[in-house]
Amino acid sequence: MERVTSTTTKIKTAQRIWQRCSILCTSLG
Questions:
Q1: pLDDT for position 9
Q2: Tens of pLDDT along 1-29?
Q3: CA distance 27 to 11
Q4: Which phi-psi region, left, alpha or beta, contains residue 16 (left: φ > 0; alpha: ψ -120 to 50)?
Q5: Where does the source fall among the domains of life (predicted)?
Q6: Which residues have a Cβ under 8 Å from the Cβ of 1 and sit 6 or more positions away?
Q7: What predicted TM-score, i.e. pTM, was given to this entire model?
């Protein structure tokens, strides 16, 4: 269970970072 939880947390964090990067890239053009 611990491994699954940590993996899920990493995925969620990566998604947040990816969203921020995509938003920045879109705003920059």
A1: 96
A2: 688 899 999 999 999 999 999 999 999 87
A3: 24
A4: alpha
A5: Eukaryota
A6: none
A7: 0.61
Query: What is the residue whose two structure tokens read 């990566």?
Result: 14
- DSSP label at 9? H
Residues for the chain: how many in total?
Answer: 29
Q: Give one DSSP letter per residue of 2-21, joined into a string.
A: HHHHHHHHHHHHHHHHHHHH
- d(CA 2, CA 9) in angstroms, rounded, equals 11
Amino acid letter for position 6 = S
Instruction: Give the pLDDT confidence score for residue 28 in this predicted structure.
Output: 83
pLDDT for residue 12: 98
